[in-house]
Amino acid sequence: MITIQNNDGDRKVLLLDSPFALDESPDFPEYLFDVIFIANNSPEETKTILSSINPITSTKCCYKPLFVSASLKGKMGNYNEIIDGYADDWNSMEVLTQIENIINYNTLIGLAATEDPILSSNQFFIRLTRYLISRKKTILEPKLDVSASTGYVIPVFDLFYRLGQYELSDYFVFMQSMTEKGLFRVSKFVNKIYLCPSCLHSHLLYIRTCPKCGQSSIQAEEVIHHFRCANVSPEHTYNFGGQLRCPKCHKVLQHIGLDYDRPSIIHTCSTCGNTFIEPKSKTLCTSCKKTFDADELIPQDFNIYEITSEGKQSIISPNIGFTIYTEFYDNYIEYNRLVSRIRLLAEQKFSGNIQGDLLVGKIWILDAEGITTSIRPEVIELVCQYFPNNKVSAANNITYVGSVIRNYKSGDTEEGIINFQVMLSETIRAALPVLNPGEKICYTYMKLQGNQSTIDDFIKEMGFISPTPDDSVENNDNK
Ligand SMILES: [Zn+2]
Ligand SMILES: [Zn+2]
Ligand SMILES: [Zn+2]
Question: How far is the CA of 209 from the centre of ligand 1 (A)?
Fold first, then answer.
């Protein structure tokens, strides 16, 4: 059953009780109804209906008030986040008031009801944040959820993640870029956790392994130090028929602290017999099933975000100046991921597993006072276009390009490095139209040198621009 009826407030109510392909149906255009009422007493069926008919992803239902049966209260899980009320009487005073409040507020803030179909993660995020603004839910708070991809999730986001609306990497980029643009503000730090570098899930098993063979079947044992003869060996070597006796001088041990002590713990691998002091920590991702060293994990801050008043305005505006670069370019990655990738490549290079030079190009814009300006999406787009085979990222007011220059034939990488420089020079020239009068766009490139111990310094240096760029161009228009 699906019908449209007028309520006592003269609003048109779309009533339905079963799944229906509303967006595809020519019989129910968007302008024919103002409110949605789902009359079904099964939580599971109602969830199925809501996965397509909801005020966020349905083009016809955008931001419209939505009610479900009163009996479902407390049974809808995270779907509760997109339900305005639970009611059976759609003409009750309470429901009528709520409908008017939502519709009037949407009119007041100028939220247009007509929307295009969602084609990308970013379009979805904009639509969801518009919805949250419409419902005055401008605080985005992550909650712990044992069944959720990243452990901490904002329930309304996670609901749509599970419906396949976006990728986790897109989510982190969106949050970061909204914060950098000042549209979101971190109102409280919640926790820093470590995510799988491959799939960004948080459900990792912590494993301690043998540094030699990598297996985790290891036993911990105390080491005994016999003062009299200075013998130091694992406890089991002192065990003779239930007596602690020194394997070297054969004296029976008397009192701990007096003639012997237990200075440390030693581990023995049951697989290869290796003994060692410190096991190697590893993590096994329960989602993608890959194993990583503990220091390869990606640190990720979880925060309570607040949509700022500037954010509310720009998100609602139909031409939100949010150029959606990540949906077009596969080579754009989050800065955290670029850094862990560079670290990995650097380690590979120094251990001889890859040949060639590791380069990082940096592009930034200075204003007329010589101060760095915030990242422009147009510049990121250009860099993604000019370096389709490289990883591109942006943070710290800098746009980055990572590159490994290889030359298998002669081992000479000079030519590759020169080409990289030429491309960077071309890119900043192409970006000239993006600059305001008096602004200057610069680039420099870093080349990894030294050994294992210089990796950290190299990564630290990535965070800063160079006072002496390799090349720069200025917008001299004085309009
Ligand atoms: Zn072993
Ligand atoms: Zn001894
Ligand atoms: Zn994983």
Answer: 8
User: Which residue bears the tokens 């149906």?
Assistant: 25
Rounded CA separation 57/49 (Å):
12
Domain layout of the chain by residue ranges: 2-178, 211-278, 323-474
Residue listed under structure tokens 């993608």: 288
Round to the nearest angstrom and report the end-to-end CA distance of the chain: 63
pTM greater than 0.85:
no
Architecture of domain 323-474: 2-Layer Sandwich (3.30)
Mean predicted lDDT score pLDDT of the chain? 90
Q: What is the largest CA-CA distance in the chain?
A: 100
The residues facing 130 across adjacent strands are none
For ligand 2, the distance from its centroid to the CA atom of residue 225, given in whole angstroms, is 8
Give the residue from 192, 178, 177 showing the smallest Cα distance to 399: 177
Look up tokens 């680039």; give the residue. Answer: 443
CA of residue 216 to ligand 1 center, whole Å: 8
- For 219-237, the pLDDT digits (tens) are 999 999 999 999 999 898 9
Residue in this structure with the two tokens 């699906």, named with its chain if needed = 2
